[in-house]
């Protein structure tokens, strides 16, 4: 009887010693708990260690059924038309034109189809060129305040968007070389994930200040070979945005932090899509080549060679690290 009680006590101790919510993955090697600001500036204390409870939340997100695709064209520039995977007949009733280039825009954490990145870039792209613009609303996965779950959902959403593109191409005859994928913050990494799931054949991928928290050692982060030409615009380095280089070409306007005219991190973080929007029509952002991202952040760049930041056309074959200065208000370009 005493022996049985001993075994029972041992069992209780063993169970109590086992964590109730075991850690499955550490996204970063730094601090476990960090403050991350949402798009409206609200600070959230987030856990960058992925736990069993986070996995349960991630399992409830089904991007193939919950992601929403909004088509905008010059014929419907303000009211979108829905695109649904497998609904070939519905696709034929939309203004999608298979012979035109297609721009896909991916929002960031706690955002949706109404995000500023969309309200700024949709009209800018349509004004600059007669293209299909598809806004991906993945707020069912990225709209959770559980940042660790949102980081995981970034990956599964990207894989799902790639399947959507493959379906669209099969039905319409479009090809990866017609696409420009643009993503902001978490969406910046997702843009790369989409591209690598289409074998790196997307013509042009732009990561707009891709997220820093949760991605330092994350193997799924943006990569240079995710597309035929990949470009990164850094405007809040080391805080909300990734600090080091990620693409074929990495631009550090104003050193990548403290954008002129901004007084907050979220303003810095958003400046990148305002710069891209202006570049579509002005083409005036001329970057000076740097030896490293450290020299780009200090503006100490004396290497030969310049490259235009942003724009409609991919600079395929170009690469490097670049610094430029901007104005505090539109027009942001200094020529």
Question: Could you outline the blueprint of secondary structure elements for this entry?
Answer:
Elements: H1 2-17, E1 23-26, E2 33-37, E3 43-47, E4 49-51, H2 52-59, H3 63-66, E5 68-73, E6 76-83, H4 88-92, E7 102-106, H5 116-128, E8 132-137, H6 139-142, H7 147-172, E9 179-184, H8 186-196, E10 204-208, E11 230-233, E12 249-253, H9 265-279, E13 286-290, H10 293-298, E14 306-308, E15 320-324
Parallel strand pairs: 7-8, 7-9, 9-10, 10-11, 11-12, 12-15
Antiparallel strand pairs: 1-4, 2-3, 5-6, 5-8, 13-14, 13-15
Helix pairs in contact: 2-7, 5-9, 7-8
Summarize this entry quickly.
The protein contains ten helices and 15 strands.
Explain how this protein is built:
This protein is an alpha/beta fold and 335 residues long. The chain has a single domain (62-324), classed as Alpha/Beta hydrolase fold, catalytic domain (Rossmann fold), CATH 3.40.50.1820. It contains ten helices and 15 strands. Strand 5 and strand 6 (76-83) form a beta hairpin.
